[in-house]
Amino acid sequence: MKILIPLSIAFALTACSSLTNYSQQFAGNCYQLVKPSILYRGWCAKLDSSLASSDTCLGIQSLPIRTSQKFGGVPLTSYEQFKSDSAYWNKVLFYGATIFDDHAVLDQIAADTPIQIIEVYEKQWGIDGYFWAVRAQILDGSYKNTVVTLPTYKFHLGDSWTNLPPAQKGTDSFVLNGEYLRACSINSIS
């Protein structure tokens, strides 16, 4: 019984999750991709769960993508490089875990592709703290109207496009990195 109580507390601390919706402040903001990017199917935060759990979603990430030192740390620099050995790169990018068989790079997305923010949440992930969960809709090209997850601290392939939320709640700390996105006007999208 003495062991069960600490285990129950540890489980509660690691599994609990809270969610604060900041979508109203950011929904509708338009950005363009600064660099050529990839569309992939991978992990994302499960927003409709009170537990710290993940789901599978579409995501985007700009090239180059740094890889794990476990696989030599060689960056993926282009979609053509990916296509030259897609099985190898999917293994490297998704850590070679067989439980992620459905996680894969799907296609390329051109630089300057516009996206529009549709959801911004601050999500707690157990004792790991908080991170931003950001969803956006692609506004042009082959994947027009596709909803994607933007790379953030907890769920990303490669580098995060956002900062970590501070200990004090508030939207004034939400920042998208200009290395990956630049502001645009919805009116300028054809």
Oligomeric status of the shown chains?
A: single chain
Q: H/E element string?
A: HEHEEEHHEEEEE
Radius of gyration: 18 Å
Mean pLDDT: 80
- How many DSSP helices? 4
Count of beta strands: 9
What report would you give on this structure?
The protein is α+β, with helices and mostly antiparallel strands and 190 residues long. Helices cover 16% and strands 31% of the residues. The protein contains four helices and nine strands, in the order αβαβββααβββββ. Strands 1, 2, 6, 7, 8 and 9 form a six-stranded antiparallel beta sheet that branches. The chain has a three-stranded antiparallel beta sheet with strand order 4-3-5, with helices on one face. A hairpin with an 8-residue loop joins strand 7 and strand 8. The longest helix is centred in the N-terminal third of the chain and has 12 residues, at 4-15. The radius of gyration is 18 Å and the shape is globular. The termini are far apart. Residues 4-15 have low confidence and may be disordered.
Record the SSE blueprint:
Layout: H1 4-15, E1 19-21, H2 23-26, E2 30-33, E3 37-45, E4 54-62, H3 79-84, H4 86-93, E5 104-109, E6 114-124, E7 130-138, E8 147-149, E9 181-184
Antiparallel strand pairs: 1-6, 2-6, 2-9, 3-4, 3-5, 6-7, 7-8
Task: Provide key terms for this protein.
9 strands, single chain, 16% helix, 190 residues, six-stranded antiparallel sheet, three-stranded antiparallel sheet, alpha+beta
Short description:
The protein has 4 helices and 9 strands. It is an alpha+beta fold and about 190 residues long.
